[in-house]
Amino acid sequence: MAHTCRGTISLHGALIHTVDSCTFVISNGGTQTFHIKAANEVERQSWVTALELAKAKAIRAMESDEEEEDNTANTIPSEELNLVVRELTVRLENLKTCYDLITKHGAALQRALSELETGDDLANKTKIVSERATLFRISSNAMINACSDYLQTAQTQGHKWSKMLQHERDQKLHLEEMVEQLARQHSHLEQAATRHRPNAATSASDDEDNEFYDAQEEGGSVTQEDSSFILNIPVTTHHNHRRNSNDATGSSSEGEDGNSETQQVLVVAENLDNMDVTDRISVHSSQALTPTLANQSKVVRKRRTRVPDKPNYPLNLWSIIKNCIGKDLSKIPMPVNFNEPLSMLQRLTEDFEYSEILDKAAQAKDTCEQLAYVTAFTVSSYSTTSNRTGKPFNPLLGETYECDRTDDLGWRCINEQVSHHPPMAAQYCEGRGWRCWQEFTMTSKFRGKYIQIVPLGYAHVEFPATGNRYTWRKVTTTVHNIIVGKLWVDNHGDMEIFGERNAKGVKCHLKYLPYSYFTRDTQRRVKGVVMDSSNQVKWVVNGTWDSKIEIAPVTSTSGSTENPVYKTGNYKTA
């Protein structure tokens, strides 16, 4: 509206209404109002209709112009960007050409001036100097114009790019503030719920959690539905299963190379109702190990049963890890109250909490049964990870930790931190008829919503009485809800346990099922089979990694070679 005549009204803001059959009014809602009278009612209606259509068109044109301005301010098409770069390149070449001309004509002008001072024929030389000066002035003007054009283009595009950059920064800050505010509100809600929730509600909530994960009762037996399952077993062609533990690209759930085919097997349990409670108790008691202490009258050291409760300090994780997405977990600085009051060496020693399973394995006469107990022991190391969301402290380089439980549990263990970056620990433990060692290292990545921990080292257990040795690698652990929500841990992946030395050829394929909201199967479930050197399934392993593991021998085989069906005997708790 910069060049409009007096008495004009912008259509996109005009108000149009009729007064009578021949008169209508147009106003801008303020100072200007036009009363227009037509010859008849038909002419008035034609004018009103035409003005309404023109008003709608003006409004659409204005909105499209605003959208185009917004899009131009926020995004630059690739064609326009290339055009700007080419234009700046051309202008830069013009500047270089002008610079060369100025240098050339300036040198010629200096030579002409020096000749003017020393020679004769002043009129001719004065004319030459004048021509040189004119060329120099023309080149200088061209240089000035080229600089002006380049500067104008750069300023125009630079302003647009600065506006885009500022827009992106504002969007990023706005997103960070929203996520931080959401995390803070969630933390306040959790604290308020903790303060106002009675003890009865707390216990009821714990019971609901147990029901949600379908945890089985202590000492109970597996149901007919849970004891029957389908498992895909990789068909192996060779036994070169060892990998370099420093290979960060290898999956922690893989135990051998070259597994390109799988075999599907069906495990079916016998009817467990024929076995009464007394028989079950006798089976479990016959499998239990009676510890033989060197001195029964020796006073056993009284040990604490739990560590002090963790202080409930509010923790804003987003402010700490918002710039650490994709980095290794060992290189992310964490506040102290995010850690457990333990070092990583102490946490590794907790793998032997259920060392009595290895004691049972040492007494087993059959190699496949022994491997079934070893498999149950590998699962037992994850028994407390469901409610252990804290991070252990990183040990110092050369730090050691020794735990001697010979007087009550029959084993002793020593650990040492042998590398700081990457963190790596070595462990050795010996018990009643067995010895175990491992080199533990891992790779970890923070993915925004979760942290994934992939172990890389191998663990070994050996039974000197039989010369059997077994090797495995731990599965992947994932910590969910890092930013918002309650932290929870899941273990998932495939584990291969291989026999070595006298147990060579015997192996176990174990599968940790990942947590899923869309399955009716028991959560945190683990299932697997133990096979002899001829790839025949001899034992079945079934249970959950946070509750209990049960094993059962295979009594009969049916079905085809590609899809066999294995019928098992009675399950017993490992």
From TrEMBL:
GO terms for biological process: lipid transport. The keyword Transport applies. GO terms for cellular component: cytosol; perinuclear endoplasmic reticulum; plasma membrane. Keywords: Lipid transport, Lipid-binding, Membrane, Phosphoprotein, Transport. The keyword Glycosyltransferase does not apply. It is found in: Membrane. GO terms for molecular function: sterol binding. It comes from the Eukaryota. Residues 185-262, 555-574 are annotated as: Disordered. Residues 205-217 have a biased composition (Acidic residues). SUPFAM superfamilies: Oxysterol-binding protein-like, PH domain-like. Residues 221-237 have a biased composition (Polar residues). Its main location: membrane. It is a peripheral membrane protein. Residues 1-56 form the PH domain. Pfam families: Oxysterol_BP. Transmembrane segments: none annotated. InterPro entries: OSBP_sf, Oxysterol-bd, Oxysterol-bd_CS, PH-like_dom_sf, PH_domain. Belongs to the OSBP family. This is Oxysterol-binding protein. It comes from Anopheles coluzzii (African malaria mosquito).
